[in-house]
Amino acid sequence: VFYVVLSHTKLGRQVFCVGANAAASFYSGVKTRAVLLFAFILCGSLAAVGGILQAARMNAAQAGMGDSFQMLVVASVVMGGTSMSGGEGGIPGTIVGALILTLIVNGINLLHIPSQAQSLITGIVIILSVLMDIQMKKVTIPAKALAPRTA
Fold it and tell me: What does the alpha-carbon distance between residue 89 and residue 130 come to, in Å, rounded to a whole number?
């Protein structure tokens, strides 16, 4: 459902536009405050649903129950192609990133690597993904395109 909303609706394009450059979006006529409000309400609601499902699964609830998932979520999203600077990414890429990271974590478990090292390896994966994202942006946007044109 969210894939269709993000890729085939006006609201989805506006979310990407505001994520890439809020000022340019505002000057283009996008109601940036409304789009941001929608995005934050949606994210908060989905986080609440995730918390309820996690509490139901564990049959218990306590503060900080999902803290161990933060690094994994960021790593999956970045590995899936979402740019840390905003405006790029998508649900299919995030799913692929999550699957790849799940394979990495399962491989680490099968190799009997301690859990403290798993966080270190996940952090290294995030750093490498961000560095690759930066390198890809350098490749795809030539310096000539960014230079001001003279008459």
Answer: 13
- Cβ atoms of 25 and 17 within 8 Å: the answer is yes
Of the candidates 84, 76, 99, the residue with the CA atom closest to the CA atom of residue 134:
84
CB-based contact 69:43 (threshold 8 Å): no
- Asked if residue 100 lies in contact with residue 94, where contact means CB atoms within 8 angstroms, the answer is no
Check: CB of residue 107 under 8 Å from CB of residue 128: no
How many CA atoms lie less than 13 Å away from 146 in the CB half-sphere?
7
The model carries a pTM of 0.68
Predicted confidence (pLDDT) per residue in 107-130, tens digit: 888 998 888 888 788 788 878 877
Distance, in Å, from the CA atom of 3 to the CA atom of 146, rounded to the nearest integer, reads: 31
